[in-house]
Design brief:
- The protein has helices at about 5-25, 30-35, 45-55, 55-70, 75-90, 95-100, 105-110, 115-150, 150-205, 225-230, 230-245, 250-255, 260-280, 285-295, 305-315, 320-355, 370-385, 395-410, 410-420, 425-450, 460-465, 470-485, 495-500, 505-514.
- The radius of gyration is 22 Å and the shape is globular.
- It contains 24 helices and no strands.
- Mean pLDDT is about 80; it is low at about 210-225 and about 355-370.
- α11 (about 230-245) packs across α22.
- It has about 525 residues and is an all-alpha fold.
C-alpha cells in the first residue's frame, strides 16, 4: 500500500487524540475529575468510552488474524469477548458502582477492611494492566511497519508518547472524551472497508476461500500448536477466561465508577454489549476474505497483519491504498484508546498506593495532585513500553488471553465473592489471590518461555497455554475453603457493606444513616 496515505491517516488519529485530550485539561479541576470524571458520565457516553477502550489491538487485528489462521473454530472468540460483559452485568456492575470506590484496590479494602488485601490487589492491577498494555505496543509497531515499512519500535514509541500526553492532560475526564470518540472511529474504520470489500467480492463472482488452513497455526508460543491438539478444552478454557476475566480488568472496572449511580452502571453495560457485538461482526468477514485473496502470507509475515494487507490484495491501486489507510487509522485508534484506559487505571493505583497513600475523599473539592498523577502515568506507560522490546514473538490474541486468564484467576474470585458472599474472610481472600496468582502467572511465564507453543507437549502444553479452566476453579475453591476455615477474619461489618452494595442508593443511604 502507499505509505503516504497510511501515514496521513495515523497522524490524523494521533493529532485528534492529543487535541481531545487537551480539551480534558480545561474540564478537570478536582481529584474526582482525574480519577472518575466527577462520577457524572451518562450511560450512553460511558458505554461508548468503555467500548472504545475494550476493543483493543487483539480485537481490531488479532481476532481476524486468529480466525484466518485457525479457521471457523475460532469464531467463538468474539462471542466470548462480548459475553464477558453479560457476566459483568449480572454479577458485579451495579454493586461495584455503589461501593463508592475509585479503583479495584479501593473496593477490596472497603469490603474486607484490610490494607494487606489492598496491597496485593494493587500489585495485581498493575501487573494485569502492564500485561494488557504489551499487545497495544505490539499492534502499533506491526501496523506502522505494515503501512510504512518503519521499524516496529517507531510505532511503540508513537503510542507511548500520544497516550502519555493525553492521560497527563486531564486524567479520566480527558480519556472519557478520547475513548468515546475512538469507538466510533474504529467502528467506521472497519465497517466502511468491509462493505466496500464485500461489494468487490460480489462483483468478482463470490470466490470461495480455501477449506484448509492457509498457514497453519501462529508462530511463537501461545494458542498455536498446543491449543490445536485439544481444541475443545482450549475453547472452553478461553471462554471461561473471557467471561470472568473481563470483570477483573482494571481499565474496564474503573469506568463503572464514573457513572452517577448503580442503575446507570447497569444501563451502561447493556449498551456496551450491543456496541461491541456490532463491532465484532466485521473481523470474521475480513478473515474469510483474506483466506480467499491471501491464501499464503509472505515468509515472516504475521497473520495479525491481514487486516491491513487485504485491501491491497483485493483491489490494488488507489482504492486499496485508501481502504488500507482507513483500517490503519482504526487500528491506531484501537491501540490508543485501550492504552489510554489502561494507563489511567494503572496510574491511579500507582499514585494512590505508591506515591500518595490513601486518597482523602473528603477533599474532593480541592485541586488534584496533578504532579504525582502525571509521574504515575509516566511509570504506567514506560514500563510496558520497555518490556515490549522483548515480547515480539507472542501474538496479540495470546497476550490479551494471558491478561484475561490472570484476571479471572485472581481478582475475579475476590470481586464475585466480595459482592455476593458475606462469609468471605480476609485470610480466604488472601489465599485465593496467592494461589490463583501463582498458578496463572506461572502458566503465563511458561507460555512466554515457549513451553506452551512447542510441538509434542500434548496436554501439558495445552494446559499452560490456556490455564483458566483449572486455575480459576482452584482460586475460587481456595478462597471459599480457607474462608470457611477462618471465620474469625470475616469483617464484622460485612452485612452492612453488602446492604450498601445491593440496595438502591437512596435505600442504602437511609440504612447507613440509621
Amino acid at each position: 500500500m502507499s505509505s503516504s496515505w497510511g501515514l496521513l491517516a495515523i497522524t490524523l488519529v494521533c493529532v485528534v487524540t492529543v487535541g481531545v485530550g487537551a480539551l480534558g485539561l480545561r474540564l478537570s479541576r478536582t481529584t474526582s475529575d482525574f480519577y472518575v470524571a466527577g462520577r457524572t458520565v451518562t450511560a450512553g457516553w460511558n458505554a461508548s468510552a468503555i467500548s472504545g477502550e475494550y476493543l483493543s489491538a487483539a480485537s481490531f487485528l488479532g481476532v481476524a488474524g486468529i480466525v484466518y489462521s485457525l479457521g471457523t473454530d475460532m469464531l467463538w472468540l468474539p462471542v466470548g469477548y462480548t459475553l464477558g460483559y453479560l457476566v459483568l452485568l449480572v454479577l458485579v456492575a451495579a454493586p461495584l458502582r455503589r461501593s463508592g470506590a475509585y479503583t479495584i484496590p479501593d473496593f477490596a479494602e472497603a469490603r474486607l477492611q484490610s490494607r494487606q488485601i489492598r496491597s496485593v490487589a494493587s500489585l495485581l492491577v498493575i501487573g494485569i494492566g502492564w500485561l494488557y498494555l504489551l499487545p497495544q505496543f505490539q499492534g502499533a509497531g506491526l501496523a506502522l511497519q505494515t503501512v510504512t515499512g518503519a521499524h516496529p519500535a517507531v510505532g511503540n514509541l508513537v503510542v507511548a508518547v500520544v497516550v502519555l500526553a493525553s492521560v497527563a492532560a486531564g486524567g479520566m475526564r480527558s480519556i472519557t472524551l478520547v475513548q468515546a470518540m475512538q469507538y466510533w472511529i474504529k467502528l467506521v474504520a472497519i465497517a466502511v472497508p468491509v462493505f466496500v470489500l464485500l461489494w468487490i467480492w460480489l462483483r468478482q463472482g463470490q470466490p470461495l476461500p480455501a477449506i484448509s488452513s492457509p498457514n497453519g497455526p501462529f508462530t511463537g508460543p501461545g494458542v498455536g500448536y498446543a491449543a490445536r491438539e485439544h481444541p475443545v478444552y482450549a475453547t472452553y478454557s478461553t471462554l471461561l477466561a473471557l467471561c470472568f476475566g473481563t470483570m477483573g480488568l482494571p481499565h474496564v472496572l474503573v469506568r463503572f465508577y464514573t457513572n452517577p449511580d448503580g442503575r446507570a452502571a447497569r444501563r451502561t453495560t447493556a449498551i456496551v454489549i450491543g456496541l461491541i457485538g456490532l463491532f465484532y461482526l466485521f473481523p470474521p468477514i475480513i478473515a474469510m476474505l483474506a483466506r480467499t485473496y491471501l491464501p499464503a502470507l509472505p515468509p515472516g509475515t504475521r497473520a495479525d497483519s491481514i487486516v491491513l494487507m487485504l485491501p491491497g490484495a483485493m483491489v490494488p491501486g488507489t482504492l486499496g491504498d485508501l481502504l488500507s489507510a482507513i483500517l490503519a487509522a482504526g487500528a491506531f485508534a484501537a491501540f490508543l484508546s485501550t492504552a489510554s484506559g489502561l494507563t489511567v487505571s494503572v496510574a491511579g493505583v500507582i499514585d494512590q498506593d505508591l506515591f500518595s497513600g490513601r486518597l482523602n475523599r473528603r477533599s474532593g473539592g480541592d485541586l488534584p495532585r496533578t504532579h504525582s498523577f502525571r509521574l504515575a502515568s509516566a511509570v504506567a506507560i514506560l514500563v510496558p513500553y520497555a518490556a515490549s522490546w522483548f515480547w515480539a514473538n507472542v501474538t496479540l490474541a495470546d497476550t490479551v488471553g494471558m491478561a484475561f486468564a490472570v484476571a479471572a484467576s485472581t481478582l475475579s474470585p475476590v470481586l464475585v465473592l466480595g459482592v455476593w458472599w458475606r462469609r468471605l474472610s480476609v485470610t480466604g481472600a488472601m489465599a485465593g489471590l496467592a494461589v490463583g496468582g501463582a498458578l496463572a502467572i506461572g502458566a503465563t511465564v511458561a507460555t512466554v518461555a515457549g513451553w506452551a507453543g512447542s510441538t509434542g507437549r500434548g496436554w501439558a502444553g495445552t494446559l499452560l497455554a490456556q490455564p483458566a479452566a483449572w486455575t480459576m476453579p482452584i482460586a475460587f475453591a481456595t478462597t471459599v475453603i480457607v474462608s470457611l476455615a477462618t471465620p474469625a477474619s470475616v469483617p464484622k461489618n460485612a452485612a452492612r457493606i453488602l446492604v450498601r452494595l445491593h440496595a438502591p442508593e437512596e435505600v442504602a443511604g437511609r440504612h447507613t444513616d440509621a
